[in-house]
Amino acid sequence: MSGLLPTSTDASSEQEGEPRTFWLDGEDTGELLSSLSSDTARAILTSLHETPGTASEVAGRVDTSLQNARHHLTNLQEAGLVRVADTRYSQKGREMNVYAPSEEPLVVFVGNEKRKTSFLDSLKGLVATVGLLGLVSYAVQQLVVTDGVQSDVFPRMADSAAASGGGPLVVPPGLVFFAGGLLILGLALVYRRWQRVSSPTV
């Protein structure tokens, strides 16, 4: 009868889910960090990232007792770091869980939700600014081309390219405007960052 039961597994340590974010002051982060406070727990998790295995196999890999391995596997599973990926059977027909890393990679950030919101707001503001700059640059390009003054704006650049043996090279005014805007935006961000670093903390 035991010969009909699966004694091998196809469980994989690949993580294909979307990354989960934990903030250092989050409600669930304490349990996660607590489950990793032991050297043995970290060794077990590292081992499972290399190859899924049963509790007895994991115990042998990290040189600990079966009872201790089961204890850490339970903690890691409750913290969402480990999952039961499959079930297989011993030669005697005993059912064994096969453990593997969670399907979602985990990322722990040092900070808080308020800082996260501030960062996301700043990122959205930057994207909006660049988008607005792109629209204005497109309008500048259309205005210059419509008025037929593009060849008058950069005549020297075109003549220089022609004199060097190549065809006329005229940089689109809209692209020049966009690049200049990005340069100014970058300098403004650097200056703002410098002010924050150099300002004395009260």
Explain how this protein is built.
The chain starts with 19 loop residues before the first strand and ends with a helix. Helix content is 56%, strand content 11%. The longest helix has 35 residues, at 113-147. α2 (39-50) packs across α4. The radius of gyration is 30 Å and the shape is elongated. The protein has helices spanning 29-35, 39-50, 55-62, 66-78, 113-147, 150-153, 155-163, 173-198, and strands at 20-23, 82-89, 95-101, 106-109. The chain has 202 residues and is mainly alpha-helical. The chain contains eight helices and four strands. A hairpin with a 5-residue loop joins β2 (82-89) and β3. It folds into two domains: 2-109, Arc Repressor Mutant, subunit A; 113-198, no CATH class. Residues 1-14 have a biased composition (Polar residues).
